[in-house]
Amino acid sequence: MTTVSEVMTRGARSLRPTDTVVQAAQAMEELNVGVIPVCAGDKLIGMVTDRDIVVRGVAQGLDAKTTTLADVMSSHVRTVREDDDVEDVLDIMGENQIRRMPVVDAQDRLIGILSIGDIAAKDPDVDIDVANSLGNISSPAEPDR
């Protein structure tokens, strides 16, 4: 059994809910990532993705310089713990079409991020599970319209 702590990325950068969409986009560019955890202090309260910025911000005509992350972030976030089994987490990721999950401690403090890429690169025992989960994650969604 491989645990999340063995493959996760520690020290994930986070932003505050009062930070702007521009600041999030700049952090994403700097880090070459598509998601940033949003924390109040050290407690995870949401996640903002590049898609959130586009769909909830740009598409709505909001000013990226003044719109805060609280306005565009996802606040109902699935999380994992360090001692969770990676294969169980892969099932959750596949079922919910999630590519990255924040790792939190018992007080919901952010301690890292687990991505499908982390699992694929660092856990050679789960190749088939990663492929199946990626297939589920990547399956096309039905349009809302």
Compute the number of structural domains: 1
- Estimate the helix proportion, in percent: 25-40%
Individual helix count: 7
Radius of gyration: 15 Å
CATH superfamily: CBS-domain
Q: Could you state the order of secondary-structure elements as H and E?
A: HEHEEHHHEEHH
Class per helix and strand makeup? alpha+beta
Uncertain segments: 130-139
Please report the first level of CATH classification, the CATH class: Alpha Beta
Shape: elongated
Main sheet summary: 3 strands, antiparallel
Secondary structure tally: strands: 5
Mean pLDDT, all residues: 86
Q: CA-to-CA gap between the ends?
A: 42 Å
Pfam families: CBS
Keywords: CBS domain
Protein name: Putative signal-transduction protein with CBS domains
Note down, in words, how this protein is organized.
This is Putative signal-transduction protein with CBS domains. Keywords: CBS domain. It comes from Polaromonas naphthalenivorans (strain CJ2). The protein is of the alpha+beta class and 145 residues long. The chain has one domain (4-138): CBS-domain. It is built from seven helices and five strands. It has helices at 4-7, 21-31, 50-57, 69-72, 86-96, 116-122, 127-138; strands spanning 9-10, 35-40, 43-49, 100-104, 110-115. It has a three-stranded antiparallel β-sheet. Strands 2-3 form a two-stranded antiparallel sheet. Residues 130-139 have low confidence and may be disordered.
